[in-house]
Amino acid sequence: MHTKTMEGLVGANTNMKLLNTPFRVYKEARQKGDTGAMERAMGYVNDYSGKAEEYMEKAEKGMEEDAEEAREKAKAERENAIQKRSKEREELEKRIEESRTKQTDTVEISKAGKEAGSENTGVGGGMDNHAPAETAANTVKSEPVIYTKDGSVSRSQKESVAKLSVSV
Questions:
Q1: What whole-number distance in Å separates Cα of residue 70 and Cα of residue 31?
Q2: Judging by DSSP bridges, how do beta strands 153-154 and 146-147 pair with one another?
Q3: Which residues are CB-contacts of 57 (< 8 A; sequence separation ≥ 6)?
Q4: Element (H, E) at 95
Q5: What is the model's pLDDT at position 52?
Q6: Can you tell me the distance from the alpha carbon of 166 to that of 103, in angstroms, rounded to the nearest whole number?
Q7: Which of 26, 45, 68, 148 is most exposed, with the fewest beta carbons within 10 Å of its own?
Q8: Whole-angstrom distance, CA of residue 53 vs CA of residue 119
Q9: How many other β-carbons are positioned within 10 Å of the β-carbon of residue 161?
Q10: Tell me, what's the pLDDT at 135?
Q11: Parts of the chain with a pLDDT under 50
């Protein structure tokens, strides 16, 4: 909160509280019929209400300044965010360009490798009669393995088939 805003609010509040005393004196003087005391009390009431209005104007100016500062701060943050995004976009474009210009390795799978891969995945439906004997001999069929926390292979027990008998 801006200093002018705080000062304005506190000053207006204080003057409004101080206004109560001369107003109470005015009411008492009116009951007594003392016009001189009533005029003096109303003079104080007018002074305090005038000061309260001045402080309210000061508070309004302070709030306007606060709002202006908040707008400027938001604008600066937006500009920083835009600059940050543009830098990130440029870096991304550089990385993309570097990846396009880099020498990359290509992998070519031979016909025998393709056939061996199709046998392992079940795509070919089993052994082909045209596959070379070497390819069939080199394929390794292994059982699933479970590793322990220290990295050694844990021997799993073969799952036994449960028998279920139901009698009625």
A1: 52
A2: antiparallel
A3: 8
A4: helix 35-101
A5: 92
A6: 67
A7: 148
A8: 92
A9: 6
A10: 52
A11: 123-127, 160
Three-state SS for 154? Answer: strand
Position 124 scores a pLDDT of 46
Residue 48: CB atoms within 10 A of its CB come to 20
The answer to whether the Cα torsion of 8, 11, 14, 18 is positive or negative is negative
Q: Which token pair is 106?
A: 């290509």
Token code pair at residue 92: 């991304």
Report the 10 Å Cβ neighbour count for 152. Answer: 8
Residue 11's CB: how many other CB atoms inside 10 A? 17
What whole-number distance in Å separates Cα of residue 52 and Cα of residue 34?
Answer: 27
Residue-level pLDDT at 156: 59
